[in-house]
Amino acid sequence: MKRINIGIIGLGTVGTGVLRVLKENAVVIRERLGAELVVKRAADRDIVRDRGVKIEPGVLTTDALEVINDTDISIVIELVGGTTVAKDFILKALEAGKHVVTANKALLSTHGPEIFKKAVDKGLDVYFEASVGGGIPVIKTLREGLSANRIEAIYGIINGTSNYILSKMTHDGGKFEDVLRRAQEKGYAEADPAYDVEGIDAAHKLAILINLAYGTNVALADIYTEGITRISPLDIKFAKEFGYRIKLLAIAKSVDNSVEARVHPTMVPATHPLALVDGVYNAIHIRGNAVGPVMFSGLGAGMMPTASAVVSDVVDISRNIVKGISGRLSPFACAPDAVRPVKIKDMALLEIPYYLRFLALDKPGALSKISGVLGAHNISILSVIQKDRKIGGAVPLVIVTHHAVEAALACAIEEIEKLDIILDKVVRIRIEDNLGTVL
Amino acid sequence: MKRINIGIIGLGTVGTGVLRVLKENAVVIRERLGAELVVKRAADRDIVRDRGVKIEPGVLTTDALEVINDTDISIVIELVGGTTVAKDFILKALEAGKHVVTANKALLSTHGPEIFKKAVDKGLDVYFEASVGGGIPVIKTLREGLSANRIEAIYGIINGTSNYILSKMTHDGGKFEDVLRRAQEKGYAEADPAYDVEGIDAAHKLAILINLAYGTNVALADIYTEGITRISPLDIKFAKEFGYRIKLLAIAKSVDNSVEARVHPTMVPATHPLALVDGVYNAIHIRGNAVGPVMFSGLGAGMMPTASAVVSDVVDISRNIVKGISGRLSPFACAPDAVRPVKIKDMALLEIPYYLRFLALDKPGALSKISGVLGAHNISILSVIQKDRKIGGAVPLVIVTHHAVEAALACAIEEIEKLDIILDKVVRIRIEDNLGTVL
Questions:
Q1: How confident is the model at residue B437 (pLDDT cuts 50, 70, 90)?
Q2: Which of A34, A73, B47, B138 is the most buried (most CB within 10 A)?
Q3: Does the domain spanning B3-135+303-338 belong to CATH 3.40.50.300?
């Protein structure tokens, strides 16, 4: 039986998971592939620590180049992360004629074109299923399973940490800071959580999804990115009253001749399946022009789910190796010469419903003044909640608008914040209430 | 640019959808594939009817053999359905050196091995994504996306008609017969609905999923199949009271060294995502030993969703053709020589919780007699509902058991039905309350 030798760079959590999956599922993988996968070399700075999985003598090395330059190795798995040495390792592996599997969304969303061009030039494969949605095969779905579709929209819950925090705030209450601290204690959030809670990680992943869906190379700077750090328990509560849940959504929508590309806290109908995806689960809702709405959910991170995606990629590439081919799928998802810029829709032109919360002096005429400003900017009101009346005191006043233009809303908010009855910055949360499905 | 010629046999709803998808999405398909897909010939008995999509002159024919024997054609799409002429067409197409795409679950679940063997012998591909779950790429997910996993369980809502009827009964009330009639009027159920409501269609699809998951050829006769025709509004109502919804589930579970393979009405926790999949939507919940729980949902039937799957298969095969290969994926999902029988678990040995409804005379001691028989068969009771007391009259008495052995339960039911306080057949519905995820 044919043997395919693999090298791994980075034996942290996911790398250890890859070793475990290759060992525990060796029989079924061999039967499906018709070939044997062998870990020939694995590099990590720490080759002493017991990872709880048996590693053959001679496999471990502290030198990534020993993996890259091993002429028996056909596939290099990069699990170092980050955008510096990881990039170097991947380019060197391609240069040395190795196919590459990576989970590195930060790298692919910033240096994808350079890496992919190198792969195409060298006639090699770069697979990256684990970069988005952990074990959920969403990359495969976009590149292959839905290849007959024009993609109309993607709505993703693709950052587990943010979703865990928002779910906890929704179901158990608590302020963002407190819930974050407990998430950190439980290992669901990093010591430096900015990457996750500021929406950056989700934006990286969204860039990858957009590139696959639209055959382009979107710049990260073109993706509007807003995190969850300013979501308050009050907004969680009011969202419920209006029949919504707050989720950090990564959204891509094809509208007219442009693509909306945005990551921000979003109110979604409480009955929509996305609203029910709680905790560290991820979900990606895709609307194709033929298939209609489809949704995929599962664990978006973790040792074994991520390793599932990495090893399935290795099997995929190995199926090519068995057949003596490469480049069956372009890493760009479309033929390299068909990759072209798409127009990213200016956020100022966004036209959706909004949730607005004002801290207003409870004086007669307050609502009238606010709605007057909104009306002057052509923003009409769908509903209003004003609770806990304290005549002469400060009360939250919440408005949900009909579809409004983001730029007009920004002007209106600026004006409203100057009103003497307004005591604090206006809170504005975008709403997606037409996800296009009853699924 | 390379042209790949396609032939279609059967221009009904799905065939027409395939023509539409190929036309409407021609640009994006060409860019993704790097080649052009051309419908060279299409056969149907009716070549006169206006299908609302432009067909080039000379394409239509009433003779399927003209498609099969056209030497320019590389891929034949079989959309005739059924297990007689469709089988003949597919075997002839393979004999003529054509790759095949089909949506025909009845054929594949009965004659799959013969067709697949022919394909392997001839070095050709048979793809069948549309055979299960309409546009949801679940076949691809099992063969490729989760290839690194041992599949622990599959729970599928894979018959849209049954799910539509159960959803209507759950949300709007009504008897099975009445809801079925209205579904027929709306085109959601066939004039002869047996195939759908008796669970046969779901069993065909489950056979395909099991074969892919476990590298085997399960016999349809080995799949326990029970439809939804005897589900009453009363059971729908009691299910709600116990916190369940009734779904027609297709279940495969790997337990010890055997596989549970069964299709039947199932009570699932009302909060589980499967319980929320309503109407004609399908959903497949898969648990892999590495990935954990993943769920996929979408439209399980219809012109365009099914065409999405068919054309995505055509793109997949065409990607092989572009690279000059075939047989990259075994139609068996594992290497042909690794296909082997699996032991299907005897239903008598099934051990799950059960819902039992008795029509009992409302006399003191009724519950005691029933629970006495259950206890004698080692079946313990989780909860009981007895409502609408009519002393001396007939009242429904509902019991949910702890895990019980199916054979023991059958004996107990037989004994209970002989009790003089029991006025009707006992209703028994299986419960799955441990789907293995909080997703």
A1: low
A2: B138
A3: no
